[in-house]
Amino acid sequence: MLPHHGSATQRGNMQQQVIIIGGGVVGLTSAWWLAEAGYKVTLLERNEQVAIAASYRNGGQLSYRYVAPLADAGVPFKALQWLLQKDGPLRFRPEADWRQWRWLASFLRNCNSASNARTTAKLLQLGEWSRAGMAHLELTVPPEAYARRDAGKLIVYRSPAIFQRAVARPESEEARIVLSPLEAVQREPALAALQGSLAGGIFTQGEAVADCHAFCLALETRLLQHPNCSLLLKGEARRLVTHKGRITGVDTSLGLLQADHYVLAAGIQSRDLAATAGIYLPLYPLKGYSLTAPIRAQHRAPEISITDFERKVLYARIGGDLRVAAMVDMVGADNSIDWGRIAGLTRLAREAMPHGADYDQATAWAGLRPATPNSAPLVGASKVANLWLNVGHGPLGFTFAAGTARILADLMAGKAPPFALDFLAPQK
């Protein structure tokens, strides 16, 4: 059991203790910034290794300028079309769970241009803050440790109308290059098979690809060397113990753990844990899939990070592999692999990049990405005095982890955030 030191006035200058629940990329980065800020940090992870859930085989893109929220005008109609497509990007299974329907109702309220524009503007600020945070972390975790490359990002469009709307969007105009289909293929020859299907593309410099799992392992090594940090594996948090509006401990498979502050960074598990303290978190697990296929000498894999906008498929060369990631399955907290979905993703990859990698030797993955209805993560204080949140990053956990960890450390130290946290701050 970790000793509990009472109130801040009782402690004086004694070192405050923090328990972070969740050892994925968000929990690990939070642990680093809090340890660096002087807190005594214990990171609790329920699995036998860190980062083997949502952080394991995600898309691998660090897309600081491409932060489009899922909720937007026209998305409900598009969703109906996607549900009818054999290999469409969306699957939906109704649940007898009020949380699914409450999340969907809030998501639909955000499906308008005004909400999308406001959230996008905030996420762009968070993206730049995260980019600076990752640059700072490179002093501790060098890019070669996790196959990081500044590959740039190319979004390709098949519909002329959708492409023109994307070109007309105002954000990040100075950083992007609008390309014709021929120019897109010239910039990235791996797209040759799609040239006749493309309406155009938008290339953005400065975006990166990297291996999120390798990053987490490298950061774990640094944390284990840090005098202010310890790691508890195979320790599952069961509930938060509360008394008079404060958390007094975490009931875990390892026993009762106690500290001064508690941070929820446990992906979709955070939803159930928060509920034990009387807090509703507007999170839903959006299941995504990926393939990791080896690149042989004869293959022509993309050097640039690619997003096929209408198919909602992304391609990233990570080390010697091609990562192909896609799909949103709204099927509850089920992280099992649907092999029909994997077969569909393989078909899409073979169609778009037939010579991209050895798809016959690809390994498959599925993971639950905890998303909020407006795609903005929740970071900051909860309504319980000493419980803090860093949750809801959806498919952009790797992209935003450094930024929200920095913000969390500042807020816990009583510092002002770098920008107004509307759309990011938890509702009290």
Automatic annotation (TrEMBL):
This is D-amino acid dehydrogenase. The lineage of its organism: Bacteria, Pseudomonadati, Pseudomonadota, Betaproteobacteria, Burkholderiales. GO terms for molecular function: oxidoreductase activity. Its EC number is 1.4.99.-. Keywords: Oxidoreductase. Residues 18-411 form the FAD dependent oxidoreductase domain. It comes from the Bacteria. Belongs to the DadA oxidoreductase family. Gene3D superfamilies: D-Amino Acid Oxidase, subunit A, domain 2 (3.30.9.10), FAD/NAD(P)-binding domain (3.50.50.60). It is an enzyme of class 1 (oxidoreductase). It comes from Janthinobacterium aestuarii. InterPro entries: FAD-dep_OxRdtase (IPR006076), FAD/NAD-bd_sf (IPR036188). NCBIfam families: PRK00711.1. It holds the Pfam family DAO.
